[in-house]
Amino acid sequence: MNDFSPRRARDGGDFASFGLSDVVRLTAGLRAAAEDADDFGSAAAEVVERLRGHFTDEHGNSVVLSARLFSTRRFAELPEALQEVARRSEPDDAGPDTWCLVLEAGSGAQPAQDAPAVRRTSGVLAPTSVEAAAAAPMAHALAAVLGLRNTGGLALDAGERCGVFLVPDADGSEHVPDQGFVRDHGVRSALAFGGALPDGGLFCVVLSVGVPIPQPTAEMFRAVAVSVRAGLLAHPLAGRGEVDVAAQRDALLDHLRVLEDTSREQATDLESTVDRLRAEAELVDTLQVVGRRLTSQLHLNTLVQDATDAATKAAGAEFGAFFYNLVDQYGESYTLYTLSGVPKSAFERFPMPRNTDVFSVTFNGEGTVRSDDITRDPRYGRNDPYNGMPPGHLPVRSYLAVPVVSPSSREVLGGFFFGHHETGRFTERHQQLAEGIAGYAAIALDNARLFDRQRSTASELTHSMLPAVPHVSGLAIASRYLPAATGSEVGGDWFDVLELPAGRTAFVVGDVVGRGVTAAAVMGQMRTAVRSYALLDLPPSDVLRHATALAGVTPKATFITCFYAVHDPADDTLTFANAGHLPAVLTHPDGTIDLIGEGLGMPLGVGETFLQRQTSFPVGARLTLYTDGLVESRVRDLTTGINALLEEIGSLPPDVDLQVACDKLIDRLTAGRHDDDVALLHVHRLAADRQVASMPLDSGPAVAARARAFVSEQLTRWDLAEVRDAALTVTSELVANAVQHADRPVVLRLHRENSRLFIDVADHGTSGPRLFDAGPQDDRHRGLLLVDAFATRWGTRATEEGKVVWAEITTAQARGPLGRS
Fold first, then answer.
1. Using one digit for the tens of pLDDT, what is the confidence trace for 505-535?
2. Which of 142, 322, 350, 745: disulfide with 192, CB 3.0–4.6 Å?
3. DSSP 8-state code for residue 56
4. Are 551 and 623 part of one and the same domain?
């Protein structure tokens, strides 16, 4: 098997991360591929193809724009056709022992010089046209590295058997003569590597690359050259009869030595890395233990004492102190301190340390100070009248001081100071531990200071994002949102109630997994997206389909669930789709309860298609939407919680105050202790001042007349004569449009609610009507203009069978209860 994995952009792709393991993998694959080829030309083709395939960007495209493999042969070894071209190009100098540069194989875009001809330039025959600049400079430079003979050609003396030549910047380089190729293809760098062939010849691989090649990476290609040479020497060069066995054996030995050296270097690097990582792991383990304890503490006094104790112990100090600033409720700052290793009474008679030359580095946050003997520091004792430590102070020779800087505001919160009476006690490791603890202490101090502020801000933010639930005729709606009883961060739960055209209402509940500003930001985006798609009057399945596409490109949107339902009072239906959310609870008028919407789709950003279902939602029915904070907790699993919810809903009296009932339901299910946010939306379908009438449609020539007669009769019965003309005009145009453009119309429906009359026509067509600006001579395209003129508003929405085109007309006033239909 000649298999080796390509180097993808995630690992570099730009040659910058090409390391020792890549060298071993690439060299072994190239040698084996070349050896297994049928002949020298096939081996050359394998080499250039695999080199291009090894270095790719994040899209799988090779960053090696061009790869070519040349060899040098004597004129007498050239095929007869190339000899003839050479004679025509250089009739006087093409002798039998003249060295010629021959293109054996190429892959990718090829420079113009690689035309199928040869010419001589500076004693070199190259595969190019007479007019084009020579392709030989890279090979010539490489030959010079390997030991070029002073014969004007590319023959080699005994010297390096393999070498590398790098052009780090191809733009304007004399070694890359085809600058048009450089510009057209975006060549950034060029690399030539190769080695000696028997009898003074050489091979040369030239790579034109679209990314920079670092010099250390180029040096690694010496090993690649060794492997390619070993593979090529398994075949006789064209024009020669047999393999040079001695040269092949030497090449294989060179290849083996390269692999051994590379493996040895890699093993040494690995051992060094393991030792370094082991030491770092021990350091990290120590810091993690301390860090967990500190960052989980929000009580300031306990926090700073824990930090001082931990840092003093980790630093191996005789005693340690932590001086920190506290801002009170009036904005005034006080400096306090804690001690570890000695009783606080040992320092009670000393004043607070001043910002002297020794202390200022720490108090100003400039960096850590570590001294084997602070008394010998040139800054020590230079602040009159304070010349060193005051009388009675504990002796300090070894000194270590670390500032504590807020990671959020970069404010200096305080500093750790450690002392020991012996010299040279604090090492670099002690310093690292102290700095690590100082970092955790800074985070913990920030947490403690910001906790109350963040909790109040989160509460304000949460309530500001709650929607205003509209008053909808025929519906009693209760909603609740409770932030988690623990923690201080805003959550990602939301609900929404939206009034849609034609008297319909959308109900939404969703949950963004996680907490904090990120979850709230994602929630805000998804809530706005769902609201926007809903107001476009899209079916529930399409609303979620568009929302999942948005979630897929929204940063930090990892796991989002959403239940979306639309109530149509004209036909007493509830149409819904679910994106991985908990099932909704549907309570029928007779008191039976069903869970609906379970398993209809994956969460947003994960699923791509969402099933849509429809169920009856008559007067007396109830719908309950909720998030998992209501039913799941640390002491109760999800299934148990949902069963408890069903019991509570089943026990609700039919005439209960929904707002009070929701509060009691939440209290009973959570016992006032919920670990997650709770969102609850409860909808009760009530009797309403509403009338509905419908008429089936056909494609007959008199269908519009029958439709108008039907509408006229219904408006008379409903005492809506004042809108008859507008309603008949709108009806005629909607029905005519459906008959003319749809496969077949389905039904005409009138729906009256309070001061609004809705007229809609359903058909099996899928293309929506469009409003045209009809010219004076245009007899067509006027129907929707009339609808737009006579209707308060109009629109279209998709259905499972096709579409519905609707129009709304405002009547004179709302009327009282209606008993006819």
1. 999 999 998 777 788 888 888 999 999 999 8
2. 142
3. B
4. yes
